[in-house]
Structures are given as C-alpha cells and as structure tokens.
C-alpha cells in the first residue's frame, strides 16, 4: 500500500475559449480582465514537414488542428495552473514562424483564459487533469464573422490578400460545421453576453473556493 499523499489541487484553473476565426475571442478575453494565454502562439512553423496541406494545392491548412502543437499548449496550461507562470512562444503569423519567447505570469490569479481556434481540442485533457473551469465556443452570424476576420487579417497583413479572401470564403461556408465540432468536443456554444456571464460565474466560484480553503486551513 502506497504511503504517498495525493497531489495538491492546482492553484488556478483555465477557461478554454474557442470559436471560428474572427468570432471575437481575443476581444472577449481582454474584456474579462483575466490573464490570457494566446493559443495561436502554438502553431507549428511553416517549415514543419508535418503541416497538413490543403487539397486544392493552396499550401498549408492553417485551420486544421494538425497545424498546431496541442501537447505544448497543454504543457503551458498545466504549468500556469500549477505554478502560476510559464514561458510561451511568440508566433508571427505573417511569416509562419516563432520569433521569440515571452513569460506569462498569472500574478496570483485563480482563473485565466486560454483562447484560440483549437482550444476545444484540449478540453478533454484539461478536464482529466482537473484544470478546467469552463469551455466556451463563441458563435454568431457567419457573415459578420467573415467581415470581421477579413478586416483584421488584411489590417495585420497576416497573409496575402488573395489567400485571405479564399480562406475567408472557405471558413464562411464551413462555420456551422466548425461550431458543431467544437460543441461535440465539449465547448458550450454561446454569444458574447452569455460567455462573459459564465466566465464571471467561474471567477466567483474560484474566489469563493480559495477563501473557503484558506479558512479551513
């Protein structure tokens, strides 16, 4: 019989925020005032031979979960939950490469947001590890998402204009399928007001839980 005591619970938990590209994840995460982990920084580099390719020969399929390093993303989430800090890559989408590294510190926060188009792909792993506070999928009108995404991507020069238009139209046609996939993986589909309310509830629950634990100790 083992004499080892169980591992202590994580000091923080994560809200995974997903949704189609351009659905407003980054803006919503900023509105919460919580620390934010940008999961898009875990994209693979453009020279990675494992990158999936578009069937029409149009280059790498950056909307496939296989273009993303899920293992590294989960490791960063786990480190933040257990130690409150981690190092994360800095990714430049315009050149499809990591251009540096930055530190992220929760500053004692008991809850943080991890947002990105592939966040739903790590819901099961975060839940199993006891790290998950909630998982949300932002949804709205596909035409609104299309306009918002295209304006952002052109403004930031993420890729060439023809590529961005082709990608935008492909995502417009497939948006409902994308939301359905995220939902099947465990994300709750909702608009911004409900997402903010659920995050506020998770924040209150974590503060209450931390206070109760302090009193009991």
């Amino acid at each position: 019989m083992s004499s080892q005591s169980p591992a202590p619970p994580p000091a923080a938990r994560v809200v995974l925020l997903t949704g189609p590209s351009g659905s407003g994840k980054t803006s919503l995460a900023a509105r919460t005032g919580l620390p934010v982990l940008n999961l898009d920084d875990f994209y693979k580099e453009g020279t990675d031979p494992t990158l999936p390719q578009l069937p029409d020969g149009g280059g790498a399929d950056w909307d496939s979960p296989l273009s993303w390093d899920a293992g590294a993303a989960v490791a960063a989430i786990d480190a933040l939950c257990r130690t409150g800090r981690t190092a994360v890559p800095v990714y430049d989408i315009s050149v499809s490469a990591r251009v540096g590294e930055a530190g992220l510190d929760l500053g004692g926060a008991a809850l943080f947001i991890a947002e990105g188009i592939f966040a739903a792909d790590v819901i099961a792993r975060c839940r199993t590890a006891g790290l998950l506070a909630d998982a949300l999928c932002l949804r709205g009108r596909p035409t609104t998402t299309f306009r918002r995404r295209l304006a952002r991507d052109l403004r930031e020069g993420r890729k060439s204009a023809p590529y961005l238009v082709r990608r935008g139209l492909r995502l417009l046609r497939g948006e409902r399928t994308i939301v359905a996939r995220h939902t099947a993986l465990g994300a709750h589909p909702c608009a911004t007001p409900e997402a903010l309310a659920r995050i506020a509830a998770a924040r209150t629950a974590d503060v209450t839980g931390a206070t109760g634990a302090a009193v009991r100790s």
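The helical segments are 25-32, 70-83, 123-128, 142-156, 161-184, 192-216. The CA atoms of residues 156 and 212 lie 45 Å apart.
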